[in-house]
Amino acid sequence: MSVASASQALSRSATDSIAAFAAELRDITHSDFFSNSSLDRLAMAHDASHYLLVPGAVVRPQSATDMGKIFAAADRHNLPLTFRSGGTSLSGQAGTEGLLIDTRRHFRGIEVLDGGQRVRVQPGATVQAVNTALAPYGRKLGPDPASISACTIGGVVANNSSGMSSGTEFNTYKTLDSMVFILPSGTVIDTAEPDADAQLAAQEPALHEGLTRLRRQILDNPASVAKIQQQFSMKNTMGYGLNSFVDYELPVKILEHLMIGSEGTLGFVASATYRTLPVLSHVTTGLLTFSNLIDATKAIPQLVEAGTATAELLDATSIRVAQRTGQVPESLAAIEVIDHATLLVEFSGNSAEEITHQQDQAAPMLAGLPTVLPVRMTSDAAERNKLWAARRGLYTTVAGARPSGTNALLEDVVVPVEKLGTTCQSLSELFDAHGYQDSVIFGHAKDGNIHFMLNEQFRDAKLLKRYEAFTEDMVQLILDADGSLKAEHGTGRIMAPYVRRQFGDELYRIMCELKALIDPKNVFNPGVVLSDDPASYIQNLKVAEPVEEEVDRCVECGYCEPVCPSKDLTLTPRQRIVIRREIQAAQAEGNTALADQLATEYTYHGVQTCAVDGMCLTRCPVQINTGDLVRRLRSEQQNKAAAKGWDLAAKNWAAVDSTAGLALTTAKALPFPLPKTATDIGRKLLGTDLVPSYKKDLPAGGKPRAPQPNPRAEIVFFPACVGAMFGGVDSTGAPAPSATEAFTTLCQRAGVEFTVPEGIKSLCCGTPWKSKGYTDGYQHMADRVLDILWAASQGGRLPIVCDASSCTEGLQVMKEKAAASGPGASGRDYSQLTFIDSVEFAADRLLTALTVTGPIASLALHPTCSVTHLGIASKFVQVAQAISPDAVVPQAWGCCAYAGDRGMLHPELTASATAAEAAEVNSRSFEAYASTNRTCEQGMTEATGHTYQNILQLLEKATR
After folding, report:
1. pLDDT tens-digit profile of 628-675?
2. Above 80 in pLDDT, residue 694?
3. Which of 189, 193, 217, 215 is nearest to 202 (CA)?
4. Is the distance from CB of 866 to CB of 831 less than 8 angstroms?
5. CA pair distance 318, 106, nearest whole angstrom
């Protein structure tokens, strides 16, 4: 048994071999190809599993040609290698002490074929990105893992991932059309080519013959065939997919399907072409509550026969945990849980009539089930979300509430459906016997596939022994039930020692021969899938070092990474957190040199290049906003002179706001090199994180804000100060009426009476201070803003409308912070204030009173991160569609990372964050380009070369 030590791992890497490898490949010149920095290695060492292996180097190839060179060099220098894409795998299959090959950053290609009937995908694309590309065709992928937003096709193929509804019918094994793979020898095979088998025979004759020989050995042994058929009649990701030998005859087809579920141990899948499934647009959901697990699981065959698409099981502990969240239906919240169990079931179809027919057909069966609460199916989205909240909130509740320093383990097993009830009961008894509390059991009941959660502290030797004893008991329980120890999470390291025990000596021998046939030097992901060391699953265990409270509950799942704007430049939210843990670990081990080195590099990689946009929060299962950590660090590390300056600015914002606008106007009037040179000198002298870089595309300053009293007002209008700093522009970039002016014109046109409060010149939403960690200045501004808006809104009677989405969000956060601290001496309940973004107001109030007279032929949209947080992205699209028949949100949309002035301080951040979206936008032409926030419009203008305007400007123009 061993707990991983990063300090020791960094010191024992094969530095000579790594250096020789890097020297041999120095002709591959792209800047991020190779890194052996401690920061990069530790950041990439962490994945969603409870294992930690620190790579000797991180390698980021850009093509199959690069990959072939890597294989050859690794072979010559005896360096093991492991592929890593999304890092969401739970079983330890994405870590190594050798070369870690990042297959996500440069392998995200998606090509829709045959009108959506097929899709060709590279390994770095997420399942969600693929489904987004297929959505216009009404199609989707078969595999539907819970980590759909973050897991990538590389992992889905490598683990043969499935999910709630895919079962064994729609996983990669069953829906793969073809693939391109690269063998350890460097041989590249495209199985879509008609002569693919002949190519394999010509280039790899020993492998071709060996696959035929192994197939013959299996087929000549009836016991082997029977065992394979029994095991793969269920979901099964243990060992290699030996069903390939039974299901296929041609060696190339056998090898193609052996690659599925091989976890990177047999080669690299450069692309996979899937046959897709239709998206069923109508769904109805119901919750069936039983008095015990046995009754619940006995109902499953009838539910499957009735055509349910989904049947999710929650055991009694799951129900109790869900009740604590308060996010369960009232009927379920009211019961006193003893041994109860529930099944969350769904019917799906192409029409409401089809759903109704399914329900009518199933009604007698549902009525005959021994449920303890009435069964009611619903198609209402809000009600369905309430039903699903109990299931979706389990991980959040258990993992989020675990003791600091412990790991959250999410495991999966499968047994024949008829043995599911007794297996779940016995598993619950094991939890009690080994002292695990709140260990929930839930999962895909119609497949006999259940998940369970444990919280464990691996640093404690006694608890580690407990985990080892529990694992042995659990293994025996599942194997006695003729089940599989892994259903969809992959064998990994955690179950590699148990493959022989599950499949028997003969089939294990076949697997070992297969591995030796393809990878004779055991270079590809050694220790994963197969292991003869019975204790290997308790080696290199991860210990979660306690860190700042804002992020300490992080489970390192990686769900946050796809939406992070800095993911391709520096660090992701997960990596920002794990490097904090590694700094703490280094300090605890007395390795101050490593701790200091990481802290120094973290300043740029972790703090300065974080956009603090909070998009990570929208994906995090335990509700972490890594921006809160970064704001805290900025506050703790702030430049004292800068902090005083920003505090002074808060007290004198009217003057600062107008001066900033005047400065931009002056700079715009000068020859570009003059202001550019001035800011460049300032950045060299004072630092790139303090002095913005002047850019040629920056506009002149805007018009100063002015109060407008109106006793007949139905709203308070809060024009954002960013509109006074940055002037409005038209589609050519020339000065034009701003969003503020457009909004007031639209209100007048629609007959909406508004007031602008006295003192508006001195008001700001506070975001500049909050994002930079200047807490004193933020509080000064918040006190003034809330005081003035309380009076202007008549104590919250009038709603307050803001014309910049990030400022609307900033005001909302300001209100929530004040409300959380109580009424104070003023006695004001600031929770009574209502903030509405101007886009939402336009959609709900203005559109019906306006007539579109000049529609826009085509319109590219950039929803901001604030629009996402406010939940009004659909309102933005609604306004856009009202003025254009071709309003498009790019599939590669993401936060632009301009983040106020962050894009001027670190232009490389915005350039990286917007690269994919800009490429998609520029793949066609649009008449106009729109967003909802002035700095985001500026960021997208710089990224695409097209002038983005506020949607309010375009709405005003289209309704003249």
Report:
1. 999 999 999 888 888 888 888 888 888 887 777 676 676 666 666 655
2. no
3. 189
4. no
5. 40
Report the pLDDT averaged over residues 408-431: 95
pLDDT digits (tens, 9 = 90+) for 564-614: 999 999 999 999 999 999 999 999 999 999 999 999 999 999 999 999 999
First to last CA, the chain: 74
pTM of the complete model = 0.94
Between CA 938 and CA 934 the distance in angstroms is 6
**Run of H or E including 269:** strand 268-275
Cα distance between residue 427 and residue 896, in whole Å: 47
Residue type, 867: V
Whether residue 88 contacts residue 447, with contact meaning beta carbons closer than 8 Å, is answered with no
Residue 562 φ then ψ, to 5°:
-60, -25
**Neighbouring residues of 634: CB distance < 8 A, sequence distance ≥ 6:** 607, 771, 772, 773
Tell me the per-residue pLDDT of 80-89, one tens digit each, with 9 for 90 and over. 999 999 999 9
Give the whole-angstrom CA distance, residue 913 versus residue 907.
Answer: 10
Residues 6+ apart with CB under 8 A from 509: none
Per DSSP, helices labelled H in 454-591 are 461-480, 499-503, 505-518, 573-588
Main-chain phi, psi angles of 714, to 5 degrees: -105, -15
Following DSSP, what letter does each residue of 492-524 receive, concatenated? TTTSGGGHHHHH-HHHHHHHHHHHHHH-TT--B
Cα gap 16→478, rounded to integer Å: 45
What is the Cα–Cα distance from 771 to 781, expressed in whole angstroms?
Answer: 14
